[in-house]
Every structure is written in C-alpha cells, then in structure tokens.
Amino acid sequence: MDNSVLAAMAKWPNVPAVFGWLRLDARGQWWLREERLSQPAIVEFFQRNYSRDGEGRFYVQNGPQKVYVALDVAPFIARRWSQGWQLVPDLDAERPRLAYLDDDGRLFIEIGGEPALVDDRELLALSECIVTIDGAQPDEAAWAAWRRGDMRLHLNLPEGVLRLKPLPEGGVAGSYGVVLQPSA
C-alpha cells in the first residue's frame, strides 16, 4: 500500500467503509457505478491499494476508507504475456499452481493462493494447450471422462504444466472463500 494511504489510516482509524460503488469486471476493468474508469493514475492507485479482508471481501484502501469491490467473476484477471501471466490487479506471485474450468467454459488459474479468471480473449489460444496425459488434444470421450473424474487433463504451457480440474460446486466463492458481492 502507498505510504500516504498508511498515514491516512493511522490518522483517521474509524472511517466507515463504502459498499456498492466500485466493481471489477471479467476483463479486469474498474467501474465506478456505471462508468468505466480509464484514467491511468486512478487505475494504478486502485491496483496498488487492492487487498482482501479476513472475511474474503476485496477492497481498495482509499486513504482511511475501505471501498469494497463487487467482483463480476473473480478477484483477479489473468492475461498471457511473453514470460507467463500478468494479473489485474497486480499480484506479486510466482507461477500458477492449478487450472480450473467451470461449467460455462471459463478458465481459471490459482496463483499466489488466489483465483484468477483467464481473460476470455486468451481462451482460443489456450484451448490448444489443453492435453491428455499422453500430450494429445482431448476428444469428446476424453472430456466426458475428465468431467466424471476418470481422466486427467493438463494445460501445457511453455513455463510449465498445470493440472486442469473442474471448478468445484460453488465456484470461486465456495472454493476460495471469496465474497463476490460484499455488503455491510
């Protein structure tokens, strides 16, 4: 967090939190009510001061005030780049540990212990990286066996292989204790 934010928190420790104003969409765009935020300095501030509380709610610390964030799908959005993954908002983390696919065809990775939705613009290229244990592209029978738990699939990437699992019932909220729509 920014030093100015930490100083404001120390100076005014009991400022009430705000709910229902800020949202992070499925492509990592910040929204203030119905307006997309595109001013780079504001977006960068949000990303530097983004955190999770003990109840699984994500927020931006804006001076002494917590502004809770409604999440369309997940607290982080992952995009591919030449050396691996870029997360929005930024998360200092190593490599992903697992990959998940939900019933709607959305791909998630677990990185730094947190779930990140893979940006939908990356899915076509990444779909070709999904392979069976012998390196083949899965056919319909392999997908059916995977859904039943009878077969393993992997996401074979240049930086390593991730096991691909079905996202458990309850999705990101149930599996990671994330509150998608925080309230007071």
Care to give the gist of this entry?
The protein has five helices and 14 strands. With 184 residues, it is an alpha+beta fold. It folds into two domains: 3-71, duf1285 like fold; 76-169, no CATH class.
Descriptive report:
This protein is an alpha+beta fold and about 180 residues long. It folds into two domains: about 5-70, duf1285 like fold (Roll); about 75-170, no CATH class. It has helices at about 5-10, 40-50, 125, 140-150, 170-175, and strands spanning about 20-25, 30, 35, 50, 60, 65-70, 75-80, 85-90, 100, 105-110, 115-120, 130, 155, 160-165. The strands form two sheets. Strands 8-7-11-10-9-14-13-12 form an eight-stranded mixed sheet. About 25% of the residues are buried.
Lateral arrangement of strands in the main beta sheet: 8-7-11-10-9-14-13-12
Outline type: elongated
Number of strands: 14
Number of domains: 2
The secondary-structure class comes to alpha+beta
Terminal-residue CA separation: 23 Å
The proportion of residues in beta strands is: 35-45%
Percentage of residues assigned to helices: 10-25%
The total count of helices amounts to 5
Multimeric state of these chains? single chain
Given as residue ranges, the uncertain stretches (5+ residues, pLDDT < 50) are: none
| Radius of gyration based on Cα positions | 18 Å
| Sheet with the most strands, sense and barrel status | 8 strands, mixed
The H-and-E topology, N to C, reads as HEEEHEEEEEEEEHEHEEH
Averaged pLDDT, please? 91
